[in-house]
């Protein structure tokens, strides 16, 4: 092959080779771009999933409102007697961990109602705090604590055999005692028992009951 012929072939082959190389480079870039796009989509998908999970968690935490009322300050901020701690236990156990309810816990024990309250339910319980029992003359309180039938009648008048949240509370309910109990007002302040007591901490959650701390002991109507 003479030199002239070689030059002519080179003139034809070289541009063609450069074109093939350029196409290969373009395909590689396209793959890289596609890969980058896939990576971006995966990242966005993951981020979207995280966002959805977070939103779901936030929504779940808003389902149950925090307890409200001036009496809530007497509840410990941490530990088994705190709102978070009480929510993990059945109601008699939860109350026993709360120092604001120690007199009520003693009364429940004297009436042998611990197992009933812990294993039954769901309940709504109007729980007199220690100051509520302190309003009763000591001699009268001791007499009631010593009379199991009377004590049981009084304590079961504080218990409604259904779980009622603050946004639904209001009306007349039949208690475990059998007598009717009227509740009026709006959260967090409710009047209970036709004005016998006022709710001072509304919507305390336990494993099997919603509890309302009240400032006076309720007395059932005479039978």
What does this structure look like?
There is one protein chain. The protein is an alpha+beta fold and 223 residues long. The protein contains 8 helices and 7 strands. It has helices at 3-61, 83-86, 91-96, 102-110, 114-119, 130-134, 138-146, 148-156, and strands spanning 123-128, 159-160, 171-174, 180-186, 189-192, 197-205, 209-214. It has a 7-stranded mixed β-sheet. A hairpin with a 2-residue loop joins strand 4 (180-186) and strand 5.
Fraction in beta strands: 15-25%
User: What is the CA–CA distance across the termini?
Assistant: 129 Å
Taken in chain order, the helices and strands follow as: HHHHHEHHHEEEEEE
How does the major sheet shape up? Answer: 7 strands, mixed
Give the rounded overall mean pLDDT: 80
Helix content: 40-55%
| Alpha plus pi helix count | 8
> Helices and strands: which structural class?
alpha+beta
Q: Unreliable runs, pLDDT <50, ≥5 residues? A: 1-62
Q: How would you write the strand order of the largest sheet?
A: 2-1-7-6-5-4-3
Number of strands: 7
